[in-house]
Amino acid sequence: MKEEVKRILKLVQEGKLSADDAAELIEAFEEGEHKVEEPATAGAATSSNGSSGSQSSSSQSSSDRKDPFKDFIEQIERLGHEAAGSVNWQEVARQAREGAKKGAEALRTGIEEISKGRFVGFSTGTAHEENLNFSITDGKLLKVHNSSGEVKITGGAEGGSVRSRAYVRGLMAVPKEDAEKYSLIIEESEHVVSIRLPDVTGLSADLDIKVPTGTPVEVKSLSGTITLVGTDAGARINGKSGAISAKGLKGPVEISLTSGAVTVEDCNGPSLSVENKSGSIRLSKIDASTNLRTASGSIKIEQFEGRTLSAEAVAGDILADIVNPVTGTVNLQTVSGEINVDVADGSDCRVSLGSVRGEVSTQLTLSEEMKSDRRIDGRLGSGSGSLTASAVSGNVRLRLRDHSRD
How far apart are CA 193 and CA 240, in angstroms? Predict the structure, then answer.
């Protein structure tokens, strides 16, 4: 076990474990190993009076088993800093004292929960599960606030309903008399229906919500994926950590995310705004005045049908596929990355392409074209609209759209 101790000490140096947590875990696994070895020794003494064949078989099967302490260390090494910081190490240590294998299994269960965006520790049981109905009439706003866990909202239902699966850090199960503490809170007023979790430390929940078509939605989540499908209404989504996906929305849409990927498909309305601090943005089949910003990540826009498009990236490529002829305003900017924009034949706009350090090119014939070092200006049609694409470090290309791929 000396090698594993060295590895766990290295995890302390990397900041994945505190010195106290490391000491407690090493001590717990040593105790767990002793508990496993003592019965094995007793069994060996008993079998010494028996045949040597059974001893050989027992020895061989024992050697074939993977060392649970090694398994445990390998799992911690795969954890990121944020995930490791959310682990309830005291609970893992408690189970490890009952056996090294049990501690490793507890850790594995916790890692599976972490991968789903639930930084809830190492509970193996569901704390509370419930199905609730609520009344939401035409025009009412649905507000959902979830601290941790998945949120999925689907339109097309006859009424409002929510299925909640809640978890609590460090709890293997919740007594029935305490279940009410973890029940969802649903509040209804004349114009708003609000769904939120009770204020309980370590509480996380997966929410599956059904609403009638045309229900506007507002969602806030600190950690976990957010999915909206087929609501046919506007939405405001605010997430801290986790992917956001929206499909089949109609109306104004506003999305803000700190870390994760954003995907928006089949949406139309007056406006779409997406701001992402760290992560990619992908749009498909959008008909709305669109404003996109990301600090770190690429922007990919497919089959864009809107009249106005603005996309800004600090570190990332921009790919824009514009279905209809450009007659409005298209503005694409990136600091470090390439820009590729495909426009439909018949576009009517002024064109300005530029890059500080990259190459600039166009496949289209421009009227009044002016070329200079890393810059092209000109006009398509009478120039009623405008198309601007600029990069600091990266190539800029303007191409004629291929409609055959639709």
Answer: 23
Beta strand pairing status for 226-229 and 244-247?
parallel
Q: How many CB atoms lie within 10 A of CB 395?
A: 17
For the residues 331-342, what does the mean pLDDT come to? 97
Helix/strand/coil percentages in the chain, nearest 5: 25, 45, 30
Average pLDDT over residues 67-73: 59
190 and 306: one domain? no
Task: Compute the distance between CA of residue 195 and CA of residue 166 in angstroms, rounded to an integer.
Answer: 14
Q: Is the pTM of this model over 0.85?
A: no
Do the Cβ atoms of 184 and 162 come closer than 8 Å? yes
Number of domains in the chain: 3
Q: 18 φ, ψ to 5°?
A: -80, 160
Domain containing 66 equals: 2-115
Q: Are residues 195 and 297 in the same domain?
A: no
Are residue 96 and residue 131 in the same domain, yes or no? no
Determine contact, residues 275/285, Cβ cutoff 8 Å.
no
Last residue of a domain, one of 93, 115, 137: 115
* Amino acid in the structure at residue 238: N
Same domain, 386 and 289: yes
Q: Is residue 262 part of a domain?
A: no
Residue 183: closest CA among 129, 125, 236, 231: 129
pLDDT digits (tens, 9 = 90+) for 234-290: 999 999 999 999 999 999 999 999 999 999 999 999 999 999 999 999 999 999 999
Q: Domain check: are 301 and 406 in the same one?
A: yes
Is residue 38 in some structural domain?
A: yes
The per-residue DSSP string of 100-130 comes to HHHHHHHHHHHHHHHHTT----S--S-SEEE
